[in-house]
Amino acid sequence: MILMGISLPSVSQVSISGNIIDNKTNFPVAGATVTLNSSKLFTITDDNGHFVFKSAHNNNELLIISTIGYEQCEVNASEVLKSNTIRLVQKQIALKDVVVLANGGDQFKPISKTDIAMRGVNNSQEVLRIIPGIVIGQHQGGGKAEQIFLRGFDADHGTDFRMDVDGMPINMVSHGHGQGFADSHFIIPETIESVDFKKGPFTASKGDFATTGFVDFNTKDALNDNVVKLEGGMFNTYRALGMFDLLNKKKKEQQQSWYVASEYRYADSYFDNPQHFKRFNLFTKYNGRLSPHTFLTASVTTFWSKWNASGQIPDRAVNKGLIGFYGAIDAYEGGLTYRTNANIKLTTSYDNGDVLKNQLYYSNYHFDLHTNFTFFLKDTTNGDEIRQQEARNLFGYNGSYHHVGYISNLKFSTEAGLNIRVDKTINSALTHTMDRYITLDRIKLGDISQLDIAPYLSETLTLSNHLTINAGIRFDQFYHIYNNKLAGDTTLPGVGLYKANAHTLSPKLNFYYHIDDKLQFYLTTGKGFHSNDTRAVVVENGMKILPAAYAADFGTVFKPAKNLLINAAVWYIGLQQEFVYSGDGGDVSFNGKTRRVGFDFSGRYQPVRSLYFDADVNYAHGRAVEAAKGENYIPLAPVWTSTGGVTYTNKSGINGSLRYRYTGDRPGNEDYSLTAAGYFITDAVINYRKSKYEIGLVINNIFNTRWKETQFDTNTRLRNEPLPVNEICFTPGTPFAAKLSLSIYF
């Protein structure tokens, strides 16, 4: 729907403004391109679906509205005076309808929109895999945040990759297990409406952890249908899901929506030591128009998860027959975590096209993890099991003001914003334990307080229908306080408060050259960073604890044929200081300057409406700058990665996909004397969908390939071994696993 107000002065210039609305949900369509046909000037609808042209030629202007997932709409301004109501109609996405957008900065939008629509989403981790070049691995079988690999980075659990949902951060600073720990399991996958992502540190509104890039999960504002879904599969895997609309049709017509979604999952998994994995999620969201120009969005999430784990096992234990490929050395590994979030946002659009956003969020988070990376290396009698704990309150504010102005045909888009984040933990602890519940020794214990205040400014200048330039600047000021409660902490001189401050400035400069609706080139440059743990910051007194990342991309979005879409780029990232942790939580084994170069290629091809092919191929060459040749490999850094597949849809209701995941061999340590073995895994999905129900089958690893999902160079000692051994320790990937599902829609 477009509700448009047009003022008609006596001169030849008129003002045109309006709101674009979804025909089915009656809610705003954000990110739609609105073009004045005569001058080819364009603008993009804001979060409220609002747009403004301040100087059109006359009231007979033809407006062309287009966005992925909707039928293109052409509206004559004079006709709007009569009806004042036009709706955008949803349609099945086809590559032939996708155009290369002129709105600079959204070069990944055509890929992400088509992938979400065509491939579907089975879980929040599958959404991560939609990002071209991302490789993820799980080494606690589902309870912990995934290991993330992108652009030659072992980003651990999020150290160099930023994740948000509805504007709320997922990454945790100064986390008990690792800096930037990003556990996205509180997101119910069926609630995800869209995914925005960009690679590299080129966006002023994104600061900490956005070294290799960022992803924003956007949940649905409204449900099309209520749904009940039941799943069951091998290894005692079960899941139940319910999503229900809480308001009637009349409220939707008034642009009010409120729904609730909940899921429960149980799985023993494929390990010899049953996981008894349990997870519960509850999510509710309200979205509604408070006034003609203001929308309120509010959501609450509760998440709880508990599991046993088999951890990372050394090669020799399997080769000698001490345990099986899916076995465990320490059967007491596992964890418990829960998180509750509250998120509220007000978005106000003004008649002149300006937009004001104000967002407040709060999280209460608990984490309790038991792991054993080195087994009997340090304590030959009781073992090296550790317990990592924290209880956290997280408060935050995001505010921004967006203004669009014109000088003749030049368009200026200005965004000024402020991000404030406060993290406070109580009794963050690292403990030496045995059999999970027996405490042997305390290693770390204290309270953490961290504040990040970050104003930013982004200016986008559209010089013509072809050239767009974006310049941004961001300033982050960090305040760290650590209350050490452990007299025996060897890194600090005693108990008490320790404080340190640090700041960093991050400039960005990006160019987008849009030749036509089939071809765009872009050059993006910028400086990013990742923060470090407060417990390390106070030891260093705030010095050298915000390592800078300098990066550049040169790429293209190209549509050489109506059913073929290509995104390709060459890139560079230089990191001032890098940390790789031995055993994912032990001592620092590698640090120093690094340099990476590589290329990304993404192709999408749809020869007929029922078939959709996609392929992503990524290469990264990374080396330590200050190390000698032959000893300058970056441990665990991915080199070649690729994902792809074919998706089939049919009007009869049958749809499915066959997909692969590939990671090549990579260095396990600095001199490449150890190799982290690559893998090639194939998965399949087949569904039968009707208006009121859907039956589905998911098969992971259809060829039952034996593979290692995560791998680490770790110095370990098994019980009664006289000397430790340095070798690859790994978590095995899933064998053949099948799961059935039934969904009911009403």
How many separate structural domains?
Answer: 2
Identify low-pLDDT runs. 1-12, 581-589
Supply the number of helical segments.
6
Rg result: 26 Å
Structural class: mainly beta
From the spread of the alpha carbons, the general shape counts as globular
What is the CATH domain class of the largest domain?
Answer: Mainly Beta
The assigned CATH architecture of the largest domain is: Beta Barrel
CATH superfamily of the largest domain, called what?
A: TonB-dependent receptor, beta-barrel domain
Measured by DSSP, the beta-strand proportion falls in: over 45%
Please report the total strand number as a whole number.
43
N- to C-terminal separation? 25 Å
Keywords:
disordered N terminus, single chain, globular, 746 residues, four-stranded antiparallel beta sheet, 55% strand, 22-stranded antiparallel β-barrel, mainly beta, Immunoglobulin-like, 6 helices, Maltoporin, Chain A
Task: Explain what this protein looks like in three dimensions.
This protein folds into 2 domains: 5-91, Sandwich (Immunoglobulin-like), CATH 2.60.40; 109-301 and 316-745, Maltoporin, Chain A (Beta Barrel). Helices cover 5% and strands 55% of the residues. The chain contains 6 helices and 43 strands. It has a 22-stranded antiparallel beta barrel. A 4-stranded antiparallel beta sheet has the order 4-3-6-7. The chain is globular. The two termini are 25 Å apart.
Task: Spell out the blueprint of helices and strands.
Layout: E1 5-7, E2 14-19, E3 33-36, E4 42-44, E5 50-56, E6 62-66, E7 73-76, H1 77-83, H2 109-119, H3 124-130, E8 135-137, E9 147-150, E10 153-154, E11 162-165, E12 168-169, E13 171-172, E14 181-182, E15 192-199, E16 213-219, E17 227-233, E18 237-245, H4 249-253, E19 256-267, E20 277-291, E21 294-308, E22 313-314, H5 315-319, E23 334-349, E24 355-371, E25 386-407, E26 410-434, E27 438-462, E28 467-484, E29 496-516, E30 519-529, H6 534-537, E31 548-561, E32 564-581, E33 588-605, E34 611-624, E35 640-649, E36 654-663, E37 666-667, E38 675-676, E39 679-689, E40 693-700, E41 708-716, E42 725-732, E43 737-745
